[in-house]
Design brief:
The structure holds two protein chains of two kinds. Chain A is α/β, with parallel strands linked by helices. Chain A folds into two domains: 71 residues, no CATH class; 399 residues, no CATH class. Helix content of chain A is 25%, strand content 34%. Chain A is built from 14 helices and 24 strands. In chain A, the strands form three sheets. In chain A, strands 5, 6, 8, 9, 11, 12, 14, 16, 17, 19, 21 and 23 form a twelve-stranded mixed beta sheet that branches. In chain A, strands 4-3-7-10-13-15-18-20-22-24 form a ten-stranded mixed beta sheet. In chain A, helix 2 runs antiparallel to helix 3, helix 3 packs antiparallel against helix 10 and helix 8 packs across helix 9. Chain B has a single domain, classed as 3-Layer(aba) Sandwich (Rossmann fold). Classes of the chains: A alpha/beta, B alpha/beta. Chains A and B meet through helix 11 and helix 12 of A and helix 2, strand 7 and helix 3 of B.
């Protein structure tokens, strides 16, 4: 990539910043906004507005009971977790009455927002389908007709539930039941929006599908729900991005994502998370890979105040493969608590976890990982690589890797490294005429290159730009 | 600096590393088109000198003056020194994982021209020419800078950088160490082809053999942080023949008289 040092060759010279580019907010002209706080009335109202069947309404109410009775996790950054004021959050905001298939039908404010974020442009250039969610609902959705004709289903989750209840019923909440964790329970109670994808047997979705999530209101809670099913021998790549305005008080994003890769299928799920620094991002992501199927999570966490996210793959069929490639960037006041989970539950399965984190200006990055190999998962392969880069002495990186290997003949590779940007590297680059800022950026971009090279070009450019933005003013 | 013919000059340079003085008052002038060699035994302060001149933060110049093309070198940071035309070929080049040789060089060429994109107009062609000059396989363009390179490969890449960045004054720190005889010839050709006619080369080495290819106008012998003798290229041959002890003894005896 040649974008590392572009027109503005000094980090401190870069004029734009998060506030201008992503941190703005629109006036609230909503179709419906629920009162603050969470109770059975709110859940009932959401389900009623969505005209849901009884089974989903009951599911929500039961999930709320689970949420209310479940204690906060006693691990991780409990101080931050306990600071969440659930009574202060808006759990459901419906910005528009209807969903549009044409950008011209989207209200001007909202359309402008997505224009600024470059979504319509990306759609024209290289996407097969787009979902744009604003607060609780998908306000825009499009999908190429020829793909629809191949039997591929790409809908927002609410429409998916309405139009394909038999598929949804079969898989929804099977990988992540509400009882899984407190935030999965909360999501199950108040979920709204997200994507529903079904790819028929043998179909290859050659260009990526994308969803973009935008929070606009202060103290908003966004709880999208995504379910992707890749039938036998099919292939799909899904990308999600997210941003929010900057507010002084907190908002909550708590998604649940379930992926099912049936025999021989391939799913790649790419995330570029760029929430503003007032968002709590507590997300549960899990995938099941059947016989000879492959699931890849490509997970980039740049924004948010606090993220807890550990994408997981269950390898349940012989020969299944799972890969989790993640980067986390923790700046001032941020804690990125991210990692990966892989469960080997069949023979000849393989997994690879590559985690890279960058901490600067007092930011904290934690890697938390679990690899479990059951006794029947013979001849499996496990590879875990964790790399942490500290930009300065004030920043922090922790690694909490767990491995439980109960099978024979398992090949395990595990590496963990913490490094600092070496003075010698900086000197080497400055002796070639680069400024210290440019030198640091080049080293950082090199550090995350294994990640960026897996992104579609447009996203790689964007990611490097984001890092550049985050590095701004941090030096000296 | 009034003499426009002098491209590089230093006067009474003192260098400290971790509080210890390793260069103890060294003066040298390089005229345009000249090549100078500093030879000396290990620990004589040669590498400290060139690292300090290039602006390494751990090598502190505590006293003295240095000028490149009439500009005060010691008022500049490493970046500004490089942009003024100074170049250091490292004895132990650093690896920058994830950054390809081509992208690094593109960034460096642009940075050297203060971010001017037009400096990159013929970049690709020039890069390929220089690859050819240094007999480097083209695949190195997309390999990560010095990451997993052999010692000899790193040295070629250093001179490739010199060829691309076209410095006014090149400091070469033991560029010959770790090279076999073929590589030595290739790297030397690269140095000769890249040496600026209006600039200068200061080559630091332990051995005479590179001087068979890169012919110096002057040879200086450095010991215990000082230049103890200067002469023409014949001095290098005498050293090769008699060893550093020969000068050590002579200098020592003179000092005793």
């Amino acid at each position: 990539m040649d974008n590392i040092i572009n027109k503005n060759s000094k980090v401190s010279d870069i004029g734009d910043n998060y506030a201008e580019k992503y941190g703005f907010h629109d006036p609230e002209k909503y179709f419906h906004k629920s009162p603050r706080g969470i109770n059975h009335e709110v859940v009932e109202m959401i389900s009623r507005m969505k005209k849901e069947d009884d089974w989903m309404r009951d599911f929500r109410h039961k999930a709320l009971d689970t949420f209310l009775s479940k204690p906060m996790p006693k691990w991780g950054n409990t101080e931050l977790l306990n600071s969440i004021d659930f009574d202060n959050i808006f759990y459901y905001i419906k910005p528009t009455e209807f969903q549009s298939r044409n950008w011209d039908d989207v209200p001007a404010d909202i359309k402008n927002t997505f224009d600024k974020l470059g979504i319509p442009e990306a759609e024209r250039k290289f996407l097969a389908g787009v979902t744009a969610q604003y607060e609780s609902e998908v306000v825009y959705h499009s999908f190429k007709e020829d793909l629809e004709k191949q039997g591929i289903i790409f809908l927002d989750m609410d429409s998916g539930l309405r139009e394909h209840p038999e598929i949804v019923k079969k898989y929804f909440g099977t990988l992540i039941p509400p009882s899984d964790n407190k935030f999965a329970a909360l999501n199950s109670a108040v979920w709204s929006g997200g994507s529903f994808i079904y790819v028929p047997p043998g179909v290859d979705v050659k260009i990526p599908l994308q969803a973009y999530f935008r929070i606009n209101a202060e103290n908003m809670g966004q709880f999208e729900r995504t379910l992707i099913i890749a039938d036998k021998g099919s292939r799909v790549h899904y990308i999600e991005g997210c941003t929010a305005p900057i507010y002084t008080s907190h908002s909550l994003h708590s998604a649940v994502v379930e992926l099912i890769a049936l025999e021989g299928a391939y799913i790649r799920y790419t995330t570029v998370q760029n929430w503003s620094h007032n968002i709590f991002n507590l997300v549960t992501k899990r995938a099941m890979a059947h016989k000879n199927a492959t699931v890849e999570w490509v997970d980039g966490n740049i924004g948010s105040k606090f993220t807890m996210k550990f994408p997981c793959v269950y390898l349940v069929g012989e020969g299944a493969k799972g890969e989790i490639l993640s980067i986390a960037f923790a700046g001032n006041g941020q804690h990125q608590d991210t990692g990966a989970k892989v469960i080997h539950a069949a023979p000849n399965t393989s997994s690879r976890i590559t985690s890279k984190s960058i901490s600067k200006a007092g930011g904290r990055a934690s890697y938390r990982g679990l690899v479990k190999v059951f006794p029947n998962a013979e001849n499996s392969k496990v590879s875990v690589e964790c790399d942490a880069l500290l930009i300065d002495g004030a920043s922090r990186s922790d690694t909490y890797p767990t491995m439980e290997i109960d099978a024979e003949n398992v090949r395990i590779e595990h590496e963990a490294r913490v490094s600092k940007v070496a003075e010698e590297q900086i000197f080497y680059l400055t002796s070639r005429g680069l400024s210290e800022d440019e030198a640091r950026l080049l080293i950082i971009n090199g550090f995350i290159e294994p990640f960026t090279k897996e992104l579609p070009m447009e996203y790689a450019v964007e990611l490097n730009r984001l890092i550049e933005l985050e590095m701004e003013g941090s030096i000296g | 600096m009034s003499d426009n013919n002098i491209v590089f000059a230093m006067h009474d340079i003192h260098v400290e590393v971790e509080g210890k003085e390793v260069v103890k008052g060294l003066s040298l002038e390089i005229k345009r088109g000249e090549k100078h060699a500093i030879m000396g035994p290990n620990g004589s302060g040669k590498s400290s000198l060139v690292n300090a001149l290039a602006g390494h933060p751990n090598y502190v110049i505590t006293k003295g003056e240095a000028y490149i093309n009439g500009k005060n070198l010691l008022e500049m940071d490493a970046t500004a020194r490089a942009r003024s035309g100074l170049f250091l070929a490292f004895q132990y080049p650093m690896a920058i994982p994830g950054v390809t040789v081509a992208n690094f060089l593109r960034s460096a060429v642009k940075a050297k021209h203060n971010g001017d994109d037009s400096a990159l107009k013929d970049f690709r062609k020039e890069l390929m020419d220089k690859f050819q000059l240094l007999e480097i396989d083209k695949t190195f363009a997309t390999r990560y800078l010095n990451d997993g390179f052999s010692g000899g490969e790193k040295k070629r890449i250093e001179i490739l950088q010199m060829a691309m960045l076209k410095p006014l004054v090149a400091l070469l720190d033991e560029t010959d160490s770790g090279l076999d005889i073929d590589a030595l010839r290739i790297v030397s050709n690269g140095i000769n082809a890249s040496a600026p006619s209006d600039g200068g080369v200061l080559l630091v080495t332990h051995y005479q053999r590179i001087l068979n290819y890169v012919k110096p106008d002057y040879v200086h012998v450095m010991m215990h942080g000082r230049l103890v003798r200067s002469g023409g290229s014949e001095l290098a041959f005498q050293l090769e023949e008699k060893g550093y002890d020969w000068i050590e003894n002579e200098v020592f005896q003179i000092a005793e008289v």
